[in-house]
Amino acid sequence: MKIVVTDPIHEDGIARLRREHDVTLLFENGSAARADAAFECADALVIRGFPITAAFLERCPRVGVIGKHGSGVDNVDVDAASRCGVVVISTPGGGNATAVAEGAVAMMLAVLRRTLDCHHAVSDGRFGVRDQWRLSDLWGHTLGLIGCGNIGALVARICRRGFEMRVLAYDPTLSREQAAALEIELVGQIEDLMHAADVVSIHVPLRESTRGLVSASAIAAMRPSAILVNTSRGAVLDEDALIAALIEGRIKGAGLDVFRSEPPDQSSPLLRLPNVTLSPHNAGLTEDSTRDMGLRVADYVLQALAGEKPPTLLNPQIWDRRRPVNATPLGERH
User: Fold this and answer.
1) What residues are annotated to the active site?
2) What is the rounded distance in angstroms from the CA atom of residue 159 to the CA atom of residue 216?
3) Does one domain contain both 244 and 313?
4) What is the mean pLDDT of residues 216-231?
């Protein structure tokens, strides 16, 4: 079997795939020139940010399995894959969820404690600013979660237990019973949550229903002392409205790991605003997380190729009519 890995994943995941099948790494230098031939012969794909469209799938007549490294699948046309009989697998939860949750809380603290400003003050010889600045706390304040799935629930747990925060959540998919079990207060309107929270943290997948969810009116409801953190997807947020609120001082600051376009345009004011902390969409890319996701996506793809139904299928309805693949492991081929 031939497996094409389009984006870098942990070397342990690649090693696991190679123990059973022939693997091509398209992210290596010089590999792009042979991409068309690799896709034409591939039985399975392992991707991260690589876009899977209906037109692309036409170039992959043998592909029966797509494994997505990570939980977000906004770069995959799952409906088109289903029409082609291609099963799509994701790797939610696990090490990725804990890493992103830690990254979100780290971003909150970086914004509130002005970590970058403090570093540059010391390195630039401006130690005296310590008497001019008043930093901010998480302890005892109110967290507002937009989305409370695997990652949001972990952020709630960290902030509630570690910082004794009151935790509110806007999530139409969360029941009152689930919220009570998480010790979270559900809020029915996003603007009400934005107004009540000292820290707003976004944790929703990018779907048509969530695109632009954090709108200009939602941002306008925030208090001047509040901050916003986004570690989900850039398109769930009205970036222009956020920039305006930051420039005009209508909110205190923001921490962004994701952007409307990635990388962000070099002309974006976000790159120069003093009350913004940025990171390159790597909140979930810790050593533990990438190894966990690399091994899990490898295991799930191998299961699917062997005819075993993986636990994280995104289109289980096509399993019984999926595109057939020759699942003979490399070591058994003659």
Assistant:
1) 233, 262, 281
2) 26
3) no
4) 98
